[in-house]
Amino acid sequence: MQRIPWVRAAAVGVCASIALAVPALARPALAAHQATPDAPDVPAAMTTPATAGPATPSPGPVKPSPGPVKRSKGVTQEDIRKAQQLERYWTPERIRSAVPVDAVQAGETAQAPLRAPHAAGRSAVFAPSHQVASGVPTVGVFLIRSEDGSATPNQFCSAGAVTSPTKSLVLTAAHCLKGGKPYRNVAFVPGYRGGASQAGEPGERPYGLFPMEPGKVWIDERYLSSSPSDDVDFAVLRVGPNSQGQLLEDAIGRGNTLTTVPAAQLARREVTLTGYPGGQKTPLQCTNATRAFQGRFMEISCDGFRTGVSGGPFLEGFDGSRGNLVGAIGGYKTGGLLDNVSYSSQFDNDVLRLYNQAVADAAPDTVNPLGDATTWQHATTFLSGRFHSDSVRNGTGDLIVRWSDGEVSLYPGDRAYGLGKDIRLAKRGPEWKQAKALTVGEFTGNSTDDLLVRWADGKLTLYKDVNETNKLNNRIQLKGPNGTWTHAAGLTAGRFGGGNTRRDDLVVRWSDAEMTLYTNVDGRGLHAEKQLAKRKNTTWSHARDSVAGNFAAAAGDQDLFVRWSDGEVTVYENLAAKGFKAEHRLRPAKSAWRYGSPVTAGAFGGGARQDDLLALWPGGKLVMYGDTTARALGRERLLVPARIS
User: Fold this and answer.
1) What confidence tens digit (pLDDT) does each residue in 183-212 have?
2) Nearest to 335 by CA among 259, 261, 287, 277
3) Phi, psi of 375 (to 5 degrees)
């Protein structure tokens, strides 16, 4: 099984004009999220746009003033110079000849429609579309100049202005920007209308061009991954003022109101769709009811919406100029494969989060160095310890992962409850699929941790001083193939009363539910054995994961964290001295933890305490519970969001 490779470059290339900027692994959540007890814990929301409802009536299109225009507050002469430079490049001829982004991404060389014509046999009513010769002030073309040497460097999508305190936000489809190549001279042209202007009429660019500001693009990290999630095919960007010094909403009037739509309300009675088809550059418009598609997309049937319309807004309560923005062409198949059926990703708290990031000028998401949930769905074993040379020097916890295809990877910790890019310790193949029980400890006395493995044939192997250089090459065989150790169902190494400060004691859970403790395991083998629970007891056959950690307040010997088959989660304080008598329940039976696996504990947040839990949830969601105690799970930090589609 081939794992999905990591993404190594940001989706929008970094160049003189655009940079997608600063890492943000854990997405800040919003108050509108309804978190479950086991979902990541997050701060409250920033300013929230209005939810669904009729748009406030507007005075109609804002016509450009024939006289001098008042410069918006805070606009500098340098801002105006940048807009003037942009206008010199984007001549009316270049705008007319720009090709749709999605056509270029699909390898199209001409402006022929990428989408197929009508779908035969569909029962949906295809609403007629019409051109809006006068343009729509809050909808425009989103212009992109490719820097990759393309024969058709001038490209475009559709986009809509969004009302905000910044007066400068635009929303389009994320796939319009995710090309893995550098761009420059990116601009939004609101109200664009094709064709020559008559005397007394506004020009093709009635409000001017608004340059996209470098580094001010907010795209969900799930769309930046190597397997973009079509649930989040939207992007919010901030634009600078036009050449007359006007901010976007000072020029066009109020933008569209970003509006969230619950999954149960994707079917809407009356929504207006607007976009710019390739080769036409005059907005196409249609009004129809929407339908829910797959429970997570909005679908609308409108004739003639061929390539180029991506990013065009779904507007409810539209008054001819603006409305409530409930979607944007994209999502399923990047907006659909047919020119008469278009889609939008559901506008839920994910789009609201990007909007709030843009309003607050927060750091955009970047490509997650851990990859995405498509990869993490294949993790079968988690092990924590100090392996990487930097981690040994700094006392940082690292993670070893064994994958379903037999590959073994090392993820160095960053001392901030996160992990860096992986280092391969073993190639995928049949060998490590035979590793049936694994644990990590300080068995050989060095500062670098060792890996202990029980193989399918009962053999016990100790891999000494695992790091980025040694990898898994220093092996010591503690036991050859045998019938006894084939029954070792689980291994947990820790500091459990062996009389020293090393984590070289081993708890073994056997297939008959017996629990035993071996103290001071080393390169010579296993020594004194102590029984912790008798054979065929009715408790320990239900244990699923057990890891050592420092969860109690007292220093010294470690505690045992156990996840049970029914979802109960417990900590046994100071196992060496108290056995299984000092039990603390962190989660009750039937909790969501019956679905989480695997689990490990390490010192991922810095410091020597091994009290940060790392758990894998369904859908490939990876969560850190930092600073967990014997009384409560720690704060939840989302490292990899779940795969939805």
Assistant:
1) 778 999 999 988 765 555 567 899 999 999
2) 277
3) -75, -50
